[in-house]
Structure of HTH gntR-type domain-containing protein:
Amino acid sequence: MGEGKSLLSTSLQNKSVVESIIDRIVSAIIEGELGPGDRLPTEMELCRDLGVGRNSVREAIKKLEAYGVVYIKRAEGTFVSETYNRRMLDPMLYGMILQKDSWQDLIELRRVLDIGTLDVVISHQVTEEQLDTLKACVEQMERAMDVEKPSVTAIMEADSEFHMAIARFTGNEQLVNITDYITRITIPSRRKTIKRVLEQGGTEHFIDLHRQLIQVIEHQQYEQISKAVMDHYVYWKEEEQEM
């Protein structure tokens, strides 16, 4: 941060004091006022610049530390984190949990994410080994379904690994973590989906939808990405209509 430059170039917004302090510090990082490894102003400086009390500053710093955005060195100060930490995405997960009744919003978010992920994966040209990984997940799903009493949990685990594998093929750690969070937040709905598939005898169609995604990836069928994703969401659409 430049010498003599105040962290607070704008006034606090109409939020809670702690939230406003967090927003201002995060904005300073995003806008380049603070960079990785930079030391934040002292508590006293933050109190002065932001016009807030010391307790509010301390609480804001504790939250930012919990999220992995900053770290504290005793006797040296508070510094902007220099490496990515998956805890940084925790606030997004909490927000999804609190807004989980917004079912349509969640479906749209997952759809956009899946389409974008497939686009990136195809552009990277997956290897035979990666394709074998996806095929192994599908085979695992088939085995889990082809028993007298199929385990919903076992099927879910294979399905989750299939989609997480696709995310990992992008080589984008943030995308992998976002996919993981959305996978976790949709566990209840996916459990209902698999139960419905088993009850309606739709296991073959369920497996075919996954094979369709593999084909899109293997043959780099960009024009089929959206259709393949939307076909995959047929069960979510049914659940939405029942809500």
Summary: The beta strands are 70-73, 77-80. The two ends are 51 Å apart (CA to CA). The domain at 91-238 is CATH 1.20.120.530 (Four Helix Bundle (Hemerythrin (Met), subunit A)). The longest strand covers residues 70-73.
